[in-house]
Design goal:
Elements: H1 3-13, E1 17-21, H2 22-35, E2 41-46, H3 53-62, E3 65-68, H4 71-79, E4 87-89, H5 96-105, E5 109-112, H6 115-127, E6 135-142, E7 164-165, H7 169-177, E8 182-188, H8 199-217, E9 225-227, H9 245-259, E10 262-265, H10 269-272, E11 276-288, E12 291-296, H11 305-309, E13 315-317, E14 326-332, E15 341-349, E16 356-359, E17 381-385, E18 388-393, H12 398-402
Parallel strand pairs: 1-17, 2-3, 2-10, 3-4, 4-5, 5-6, 6-7, 6-8, 8-9, 9-10, 12-14
Antiparallel strand pairs: 1-11, 11-12, 11-16, 13-16, 14-15, 17-18
């Protein structure tokens, strides 16, 4: 995005502010869609990466489906115009109300992640009044494939909470296939995030196909979907590796084609991370303990990934930096925590008070992980289309933060609650 446009947005909307470029999202979606063209497929965007309604609407118009993990994300997907059949419902802890909402919406696939979850879904289906529609179910398998990524984002290795253990998946899938009110449509996996090698996908895919063969031999004829999850890795800095989606597709598609199943993938970060930036201004500078510190108006409540994961986000000065010397800074926010930083030991142009900074790679797991810690309102979100911009979520106010609270409680006695 041009510096003039970013400066205009900051002047009009204030900082901190998230800014997303629509064309970048279109480019990423098109790149992946073309790579998958040899097989029937559906790209189901992972809403947890960035759930802004304008972003969801943009992806829906491109042809995407939606991958959700909660009832709230279901409501958000429906509000953005997705039909129930466009939605895949994943997640290890779906509650009864969420299941009912998914069934009422006609969700295309509910990915079951445990034997007890399947039993709960069967009970919810049985208790539904006046509906003869079966629940479309997939079995999410933990393929026990190790990937080189942050431990917090490894989801397909043994002992993690996600999915059905691979050695139990066959029995649970067969039980689902034989249960009234359940239509077993697919098998699924998700290996984790930021995967830059096709090898783990092939390993996991082959395990899924073994399960498919087992089910087909057992007489299951309803399977039509093979869901490989997401996790397609991107580079946050030039020297970082990223997944070559062309090479990835060449590695997995022959196996998918042989299965005669429709491929579903669930990318999130891959589609939107590079499209977004967080704009923030320098409030103050100080030097302490031999370290230069730049205090900015965006904190860990606005972008938690550096503090939570020690994640790297590129930071650049919006403006002419050629005449400025370089200085190594800790770039910190205003939150009352020592872990409140966006970068440590980062070499940047010498910063002045009021300088506008662009924090890159912020289109995914940025706003969706914000909080109101220290009673700070969440920042606005802006969508850019060419040289135009629109505020697609306003900045939260102090009144917004107190909505639903009361200073004068209306007391109830426990004995009156039955």
């Amino acid at each position: 995005m041009g510096e003039g446009l970013l400066a205009a947005i900051a002047a009009a909307v204030g900082t901190p502010v998230y800014v997303y470029r629509a064309e970048a999202i279109r480019e990423q979606y098109g790149r992946l869609d073309r790579a998958l063209e040899p097989v029937p497929h559906r790209i189901c965007y992972s809403i947890k990466a960035n759930g802004n309604l304008a972003v969801l609407s943009l992806l829906r118009r491109l042809g995407a489906g939606a991958d959700i993990v909660s009832g709230g994300e279901l409501a958000r997907a429906l509000r953005a115009g997705f039909g129930g059949a466009d939605i895949v419902f994943s997640g290890v802890g779906k509650g009864r109300e969420e299941m009912r909402a998914a069934l009422n919406a006609g969700v295309g696939l509910i990915s079951v992640e445990s034997e007890e979850e399947l039993a709960t879904l069967v009970d919810v289906v049985a208790r539904r009044a006046g509906s003869g529609r079966p629940a479309n179910v997939g079995i999410r398998v933990n393929p026990e494939v190790t990937v080189e990524t942050h431990p917090y984002t490894q989801t397909g290795v043994k002992g993690k909470k996600f999915g059905v253990p691979v050695d139990e998946a066959g029995a649970i899938a067969e039980r689902a296939a034989r249960t009234g009110g359940i239509r077993l449509r697919g098998v699924a996996m998700h290996l984790g995030s930021q995967i830059t090698d096709a090898g783990p996908y092939v390993q996991g895919l082959l395990k899924l196909l073994e399960l498919v063969d087992e089910l087909r031999r057992g007489g299951v004829k309803t399977l039509d979907t093979l869901d490989l999850g997401g996790g397609l890795g991107i580079a946050y800095r030039r020297e970082d590796p990223s997944l070559d989606v062309g090479a990835w597709a060449q590695a997995v598609l022959p196996h998918v084609a042989a299965s005669r199943l429709r491929l579903v993938v669930e990318p999130g970060r891959y589609l939107v991370a590079g499209a977004g930036v967080l704009l923030t201004r320098v409030l103050y500078r100080k030097r302490t303990g031999g370290r230069d510190i730049a205090v900015i108006d965006a904190g860990m409540n606005d972008l938690i990934r550096p503090s939570h994961y020690r994640a790297y986000h590129p930071i650049r000065l919006v403006g002419d930096e050629r005449a400025r010397p370089r200085t190594t800074y800790d770039v910190v926010g205003p939150i009352c925590e020592s872990g409140d930083f966006l970068a440590l030991d980062r070499e940047l142009p010498h910063l002045e008070r009021g300088d506008l900074l662009e924090v890159g790679g912020a289109g995914a797991y940025g706003f969706v992980m914000t909080s109101t810690y220290n009673a700070r309102g969440r920042p606005p979100e802006v969508l850019v289309e060419g040289d135009r911009f629109a505020v697609v979520r306003r900045r939260e106010t102090a009144s917004d933060l107190m909505r639903g609270e009361t200073a004068t409680p209306s007391w109830r006695r426990a004995k009156d609650v039955v």
